[in-house]
Design a protein that fits this description.
The protein has about 150 residues and is α+β, with helices and mostly antiparallel strands. The protein has four helices and eight strands, in the order E-H-E-E-H-E-E-E-H-E-E-H. It has a single domain, classed as Molybdopterin biosynthesis MoaE subunit (Aldehyde Oxidoreductase, domain 3, Alpha-Beta Complex). The strands form two sheets. Strands 1-4-6-2 form a four-stranded mixed β-sheet, sandwiched between helices. A hairpin with a 2-residue loop joins strand 7 and strand 8. Helix 2 packs antiparallel against helix 3. The longest helix has 17 residues. It is globular, with a radius of gyration of 16 Å.
Length: about 150
């Protein structure tokens, strides 16, 4: 299991390939990548993501371990960026490996729902009309509640 919280961009292809190649006796690998999208009226110039070093890594590591146990995963990877990110940049990546695809898919979805709703990051969208903090959305909470 690996958890990375970093400012630098990551190479999705290289990360996915390294993760998949490291698996032994696993029947499925699932990956997901989140991309910064324009959600501000009038156009978003960038998203600013803040976090508390140490606290964030600890929370994500505990969460990833919970997913490993809950879904009988062989391995998991979480990469989440912080800092100033432009539209269309990759913001995060989740990869899961399990003996069976059902566990790999369910674990990836669970991890994505948790990261969207509970991960200790604070996001601000900056656009032509100013800046605004990103509030929790009801649909994200609803998605998390099914777990």
């Amino acid at each position: 299991m690996k958890v990375l919280v970093q400012q630098a961009p990551f190479d999705f292809g290289a990360e996915a390939e390294a993760f998949a190649r490291a698996q032994h006796n696993m029947g499925a690998v699932v990956t997901f990548t989140g991309i910064v999208r324009d959600s501000v009226e009038g156009g978003m110039a960038e998203m600013q993501i803040e976090h508390y070093p140490g606290m964030t890594e600890k929370a994500l590591t505990q969460f990833a371990q919970d997913a490993m146990d809950r879904f009988d995963l062989g391995d998991a990877l979480v990469i989440h960026r912080y800092g100033h990110l432009g539209r269309d940049e990759m913001i995060m990546m989740v990869a899961t490996a399990a003996r069976h695809r059902k566990d790999a898919f369910a674990a990836a979805e669970y991890m994505m729902d948790w990261l969207k709703s509970r991960a200790p990051f604070w996001k601000k969208e900056v656009g032509d009309t100013g800046a605004q903090w990103v509030d929790a959305r009801d649909e994200d909470e609803d998605a998390l509640s099914r777990w």
